[in-house]
């Protein structure tokens, strides 16, 4: 199976360097290239690639801003002229990053990581607009950034016009409303508990009967979430045999 890749990089020299490296790997199909973030966004929307080679530092908008524009982020390998200390504030789950000028052996190592993730990820392409549990989203909150798999998120919660995302020990804000988030989530594993919260049912440790026909969900991370009475009936129906 071919791995469809796109390059978003403002330097023509760097793009050519990547293209020459890609030519040496028959399993990679270059689906297109872009020299700035806006062109890159249009290209990704059109080509729906498996793999993104992304420059971090570009004029006008940087690579992080491109990731913020995407509902679903492809497997991402950053390309940068700066060493790891220059991007240490980025607590990313990006698969890898390549330091310019890119070493051929180091490029091959990055591709091996890409193939392992694809082959181990049951990566059937989702044909609808909805995300799958294997899909990843980009979150930037202040100086910290993350690429997070949907399946690793325990729950979402309204905070004003934004949404707080809970994963591991972190809870950054996503600059989208909870309703916008809900439209994209896989319904088989995410459930609207009440007006303020959506839970990942895979993270529920226990279900406790509560007042007035309501339920309380005890999450694996220790959080407790109250299910509204109406949603409690729906939850019982959804989770019963």
Give an account of the 3D structure.
With 241 residues, this protein is α/β, with parallel strands linked by helices. The chain has 2 domains: 3-119, Rossmann fold; 146-239, LytTr DNA-binding domain (OB fold (Dihydrolipoamide Acetyltransferase, E2P), Beta Barrel). The chain has 6 helices and 15 strands. The protein has helices at residues 12-23, 37-47, 63-69, 104-119, 178-184, 229-239; strands at 3-8, 28-34, 51-55, 75-80, 96-99, 136-141, 144-149, 153-159, 162-167, 173-174, 190-192, 197-200, 204-209, 215-219, 224-227. The strands form 4 sheets. Strands 2-1-3-4-5 form a 5-stranded parallel β-sheet, sandwiched between helices.
Structural class: alpha/beta
The rounded distance between the terminal residues' Cα atoms is 38 Å
Q: Got a strand count?
A: 15
Tally of structural domains: 2
Q: Order of SSEs, N→C?
A: EHEHEHEEHEEEEEHEEEEEH
Specify Rg, calculated over alpha carbons: 20 Å
**What share of residues are in beta strands?**
25-35%
CATH level-3 fold name of the largest domain: Rossmann fold
Tally of individual helices: 6
CATH architecture name of the largest domain = 3-Layer(aba) Sandwich
Helix content: 25-40%
Can I get a quick summary?
The chain is an alpha/beta fold and 241 residues long.
Give keywords.
single chain, 241 residues, alpha/beta, Rossmann fold, OB fold (Dihydrolipoamide Acetyltransferase, E2P), 2 domains, five-stranded parallel beta sheet, five-stranded antiparallel beta sheet, 27% helix, CheY-like_superfamily, LytTR_DNA-bd_dom
